[in-house]
């Protein structure tokens, strides 16, 4: 009997009795499951973008969403001519986070909130620095949102670390 690469459970074990890694492996590697998932037309990652000016409106829609997994990613603005952020940590963390979220088997809603240019973000009275809901210290900040509050977060110095992102994805 075939076994999964990362655990000793055979393939015929029900998904409910298996770990998230097994589900991820099966949906990605076993053709009959991969094709069934694609046939459903499932979009596992939905992304919303917000700026300082429209954040509250977008955030209200984000909170009312029925998505099982909700995340906020606070980033520095991108330069339109280069499509790169002025923040080097944001340029490193964002692709890693997006890759991990796209690989998730669950439906994920991501709100990317752009904090502004460098002088705007550096202002100590920046709205997201003083907002008690977020209390941002740096960008990028990756937050798991659940039950109307922060359920977990990765600060600027750790937001690019793959295993920490995976842990935040898997935590309840």
TrEMBL record:
One annotated GO molecular function: protein-disulfide reductase [NAD(P)H] activity
GO CC annotation terms, alphabetical: cytosol
Domain named Thioredoxin: residues: 66-170
Record keywords, A-Z: Disulfide bond, Electron transport, Redox-active center, Transport
Keyword tRNA-binding: no
Protein's UniProt keywords contain Electron transport: yes
SUPFAM superfamilies: Thioredoxin-like
Superkingdom field: Eukaryota
InterPro entries documented for this protein: Thioredoxin-like_sf, TXNDC17-like, TXNDC17_dom
Family membership noted in the UniProt record: Belongs to the thioredoxin family.
Function of the protein: Probable thiol-disulfide oxidoreductase that may participate in various redox reactions.
Name listed for the protein in its UniProt record: Thioredoxin-like protein Clot
The species this protein was found in: Canna indica
